[in-house]
Amino acid sequence: MAARPQILTWVTCDSVHIDPATGKHYLMGCFSNLRARKFPATHPRMVWFLTLTDLKPGKHQLRLSYGRDMETMTKLIEREFEARHPLDKVNLINELRNLRFEEPGAYQILIEVDDEPLLVNSLAVSE
After folding, report:
1. Phi, psi dihedrals of residue 113, rounded to the nearest 5°
2. How far is CA 37 from CA 50, 111, 126, 127, in A?
């Protein structure tokens, strides 16, 4: 087992459908940037899909934050999830509604598990 959890998947998309018969996840409308006509802009709905592995068995805390830089991060999602086995792949669907962007530019997204930063990614927002 790795010393810390590992991110296998990080995707921004419009929605995720889980097939009730197979349990497969279908990610729809994947994107890596946004465009707005004017600012401040509000994006009505997006999903941050995340797959983690190498988690110790038990309960964990996920925190997702964003901001223009690391000093001005705003917490968007904080939720508990559970892992049964270190080799499990845990899929987490994180829906965001009315996410606000004050100005064009790169917005940093911070992914933390159990207060440990795992990844900083960016989302480009343009006019």
Report:
1. -125, 125
2. 29, 28, 9, 6
pLDDT-derived band at 102, boundaries 50, 70, 90: very high
The CATH code that applies to domain 6-126 is 2.60.40.10
| Segment 104-117 mean pLDDT | 96
Is residue 3 predicted with pLDDT exceeding 90?
A: no
Q: What is the pLDDT of residue 8?
A: 96
Residues 73/111, Cβ–Cβ less than 8 Å:
no
- In the chain, the N- to C-terminal Cα span, in Å, equals 44
Cα dist from 75 to 4, 49, 79, 96, 126, whole Å: 22, 17, 11, 12, 22
Residue type (1 letter), 29: G
- Say which residue the tokens 């990080």 belong to: 10
Structure tokens at 120: 């900083």
Give 115's pLDDT tier (boundaries 50, 70, 90): very high
